User: Which sequence fits this backbone?
């Protein structure tokens, strides 16, 4: 093989030893699985402050793994987290790394996270969530797909080049955090602080914190934002007995249910004036793109356990999942929700709901529209109770240009590894860091997923298939080469 590369060099032919690199990956499958096993074993739950020591250990392990690549590794202090009782604890440090400083090459920055959602076996897991379990080619464990395997796959991709003494086609930087699952506390500030240093020579940013839509590989070019609201209705000074006071007071819960019902129609139409009018038009080109996407509606219904969906055709369903706003009502704080019965009239209740954001919506305008609308609806009820509307999250949507060279490189890499064209998809969820990177650094971004459509992120029995993990590593290897081919 080396002789072929040498001959190609003499003849001026651009050769790339993909077969050698991919064989190296195949030869180290069990090493990669063991690395994931070690990482999954760490209960790096960022929502549980009692697990903060585990989270710090996870960041240390990540730094050590990156140091093995021989690059410059830094653990960046991003401050403290204030707890509800007013005390503070250190936030997990963000790990940054740089491998290669060749100014003639492109520089990519890979973002990932190694914190996880909560998980307990008694929640319905078939296996211990922190003991990676291999069943029929699937690797079950909390964080296996979201996001520990993708982070490891990127590290293994760089390792493969080094193991074969091959020059990395691009310079590679990493930024790995430990608070993504709870809002990436401190990361935005760090990105702003590092804009003119760490990010100054970065050409492209790659995020692999997402998944495929089907069994066909995908490139992700958009995510929805999110505006999360609290609607608090307060009435009497304390909870009341419904037998003693029922029928004599206007109950806060009744008011709250009334205004929540005014947000959305039974058919899913958002009733807040101005929301739907702000949505970017659905072009013919985009419609065609959705039509060509591989998506099985029957499998989708089966997966979530429903016989009927809001829409009965693929294009409408995907459009309302990805590129239209939606209202979701999440819960009511202050209401009786325990088992059994309690004849109480709650004195104060808070409804929690969100509106997913899409281009060209603006969270600041949505806050104004929702607040004014709910107060107008509430006023018509002529209730003596008090309404307070608060927006606690205002995350913007992110959208990339699928004709950008980054996406052409992604298509070429997918075709090389999987022998097929990828689907171009959007995510219905929110990945705020993408918009932060875009707004602060001005760099071009691609989301390059390797997670499966059925990985069960945030759910019981989360998994990463061996196939996606290993072939995903080969995809990353190939992608680095394709990015190097982009003309400066």
Assistant:
């Amino acid at each position: 093989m080396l002789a072929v590369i040498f001959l190609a060099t003499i003849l001026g032919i651009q050769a790339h030893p993909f077969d050698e690199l991919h064989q190296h990956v195949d030869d180290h499958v069990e090493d990669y699985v063991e690395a994931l096993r070690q990482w999954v074993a760490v209960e790096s739950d960022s929502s549980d402050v009692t697990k903060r020591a585990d989270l710090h250990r996870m960041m240390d392990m990540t730094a050590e793994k990156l140091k093995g690549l021989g690059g410059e590794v830094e653990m960046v202090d991003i401050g403290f987290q204030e707890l509800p009782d007013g005390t503070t604890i250190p936030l997990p440090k963000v790990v940054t790394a740089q491998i290669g400083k060749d100014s003639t090459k492109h520089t990519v920055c890979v973002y990932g996270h190694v914190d996880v959602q909560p998980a307990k076996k008694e929640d319905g897991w078939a296996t211990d969530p922190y003991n990676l379990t291999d069943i029929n080619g699937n690797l079950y464990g909390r964080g296996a797909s979201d996001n520990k395997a993708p982070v490891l796959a990127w590290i293994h991709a760089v390792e493969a080049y080094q193991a074969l003494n091959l020059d990395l086609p691009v310079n590679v930087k990493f930024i790995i955090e430990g608070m993504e699952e709870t809002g990436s506390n401190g990361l935005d500030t760090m990105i702003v602080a590092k804009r003119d240093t760490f990010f100054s020579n970065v050409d492209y940013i790659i995020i692999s914190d997402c998944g495929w839509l089907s069994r066909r590989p995908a490139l992700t070019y958009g995510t929805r934002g999110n505006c999360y609201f609290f609607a608090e209705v307060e009435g009497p000074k304390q909870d009341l007995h419904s037998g003693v006071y029922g029928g004599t007071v206007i109950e806060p819960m009744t008011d709250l249910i009334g205004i929540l019902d005014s947000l959305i129609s039974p058919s899913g139409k958002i009733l807040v004036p101005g929301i739907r009018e702000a949505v970017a038009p659905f072009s013919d080109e985009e419609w065609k793109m959705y039509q060509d996407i591989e998506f099985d509606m029957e499998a989708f219904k089966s997966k979530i356990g429903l016989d009927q969906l809001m829409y009965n055709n693929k294009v409408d369903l995907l459009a309302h999942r990805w590129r239209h706003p939606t209202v979701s009502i999440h819960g009511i704080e202050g209401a009786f929700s325990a088992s059994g019965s309690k004849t109480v009239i709650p004195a104060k209740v808070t409804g929690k709901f969100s509106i997913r954001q899409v281009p060209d919506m603006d969270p600041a305008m949505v806050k104004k529209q929702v607040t004014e609308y709910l107060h107008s609806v509430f006023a018509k009820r002529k209730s003596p109770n008090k309404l307070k509307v608060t927006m606690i999250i205002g995350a913007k949507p992110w959208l990339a240009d699928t004709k950008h060279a980054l996406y052409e490189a992604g298509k070429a890499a997918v075709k090389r590894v999987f022998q097929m064209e990828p689907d171009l998809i959007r995510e219905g969820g929110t990945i705020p860091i993408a918009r932060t990177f875009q707004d602060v650094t001005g760099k071009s971004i691609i989301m390059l997923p390797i997670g499966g459509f059925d990985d069960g992120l945030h759910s019981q029995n989360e998994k990463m298939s061996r196939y996606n993990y290993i072939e995903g590593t080969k995809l990353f290897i190939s992608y680095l080469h394709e990015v190097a081919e982009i003309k400066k």
Q: What stands out?
A: Residues 330 and 403 are 37 Å apart (CA to CA).
